[in-house]
Specification:
With 250 residues, this protein is α/β, with parallel strands linked by helices. It has two domains: 3-103 and 218-240, Rossmann fold (3-Layer(aba) Sandwich), CATH 3.40.50; 109-215, 2-Layer Sandwich (Dihydrodipicolinate Reductase, domain 2). The protein has seven helices and eleven strands. A six-stranded parallel β-sheet has the order 2-1-3-4-5-11, sandwiched between helices. Strands 7-8-6-9-10 form a five-stranded mixed β-sheet. A hairpin with a 2-residue loop joins strand 7 (179-181) and strand 8. 38% of the residues are buried.
Length: 250
């Protein structure tokens, strides 16, 4: 059985790369490509089973909610899809038990494993900080991957009863210490030459553990994109992260 896919944000960097990957994947067919100025109704006119959303945060939520209302499964790849947007989607999906939504902060399988490794290691170290590095055309900071990593690290430390990460800083008028996400410091770098990189630094007395992942091409995300589109319908409700479809949520 062929899964019919609509790509929203099809002319963007991730959207266009995804169209190519999906068209090459067995059992998947791209039936609609929607971008700025195109009617979203193409999704239903072409009878898409799944919508892959790579549009900007200011329009992505509205598009996701529209797809849910139409009974179309959704994979959300939009970065910056924050907690408020996620809550709105959960509320909408509660009214549609026949629709599944998979929100993916990072489609790289290596990045997913890095997040899991960081969460596993975090309770064993006194200090944890995250540095994320992306190209200067990225519009949101910190990245969705860094936010998700910080949330997983913080949750693991809370479950283990870890003390707060130590930091004696009292003066930082320029924000040099970075942002705080659930008590974890996150630093964002925007520089030409990067596609998507992240490093998690874990420190204890006399030692540093550095976990790092680099994506140098957008093609590195495509196995995750294809997997998400293939399996979104298998996960009822709203799921965050590729862990579930990769069998890592056990």
């Amino acid at each position: 059985m062929t899964t019919r896919v609509a790509v929203l944000g099809a002319q963007g960097r991730m959207g266009s790369t995804s169209v190519t990957a999906l068209e090459a994947a067995e059992g998947l067919e791209v039936v609609a490509q929607v971008d700025v100025g195109d009617p979203i109704e193409r999704v239903t006119e072409q009878e898409a089973d799944v919508a892959l959303v790579f549009t900007t945060p200011d329009v992505a939520l509205e598009q996701v909610l529209w797809c849910v209302e139409q009974g179309v499964h959704v994979v959300v790849g939009t970065s910056g899809f924050d907690g408020d947007r996620l809550r709105a989607v959960r509320e909408a999906v509660e009214q549609r038990t026949d629709v599944s939504v998979l929100v993916v902060p990072n489609f790289s399988i290596g990045a997913v494993l890095l997040m899991r490794f960081a969460a596993t290691a975090a309770p064993f170290f006194e200090s944890v900080e995250i540095i994320e590095m992306h190209h200067p055309a990225k519009v949101d900071a910190p990245s969705g991957t860094a936010v998700r990593t910080a949330e997983l690290v913080a949750a693991a430390r809370a479950e283990a009863g870890s003390d707060p990460v130590p930091d004696a800083t009292t003066t930082d008028p320029e924000g040099a210490r970075g942002a705080k996400v659930d008590g974890i410091t996150v630093h964002a770098v925007r520089s030409r030459g990067f596609v998507a990189s992240q490093e998690v630094l874990l420190g204890g007395e006399g030692e540093i553990l550095s976990l790092r992942h680099d994506s140098s091409t957008r093609e590195s995300f495509m196995p995750g994109v294809v997997t998400a589109v293939r399996h979104v319908a298998d996960r009822p409700g709203v799921t965050v992260g590729l862990d579930a479809v990769l069998g890592l949520d056990a």
